[in-house]
Amino acid sequence: MKNIQIKICGQTNPAIINHCLNLGIEKQGLIFYEQSPRFVDNDTLGIINNYFKNFKHQFVGVFVNPSINEIESKLKQFDFDTIQLHGNEDQDLINTIKKKFNKSIYKSITPEKFIGEYFQNVDLFLIESAPSKEEMPGGNNKTWDWSSFNNPNNLPFMISGGLNITNIKKAIDLTGASFVDINSGVEDKPGIKNISLIEDLVLSLK
Fold this sequence. Notes:
Structural class: alpha/beta
CATH architecture: Alpha-Beta Barrel
Strand content: 15-25%
Strand order of the largest sheet: 7-6-5-4-3-2-1-8
């Protein structure tokens, strides 16, 4: 299998973050959406800054329809290198965020919209199914039809949504992805990551 990059999202435990960095996992996702069970509060973010400021290039801050002030506040506490937008952010907001912070930007998008909708100033697109009205923003541990995936503009992307050790190779084979985003698939319950599941997944891909 080709070299696959991994992002473990929803990180809240500094000890597990440290273990993931030691395993060579490329990106660690920190969620700044207060309704999420994986929300990183200011105290935890301060601890992460104390221990991992030298690894800031490996961290992704995940926001849902954020204000500029919200992003700025988090970056003052921990200067992570990538901003992930997981809501209904439009091109104007994306442009403003890029100009203001000069960070890499990831943008979540459905596979259907990915075919026909193009955002500028996005460095990488995160492909996942759309949440229902009752669901939280994000993949909600739901897979989607990988066999119908199409990337007509040859844009950089990662796949997400319901990925775990039992299906991730199939998803990679069908989409041609070289970057995967995993959250629920390595958890015992929402917000509680399982080191053994993470290790098994890394071993299967790397």
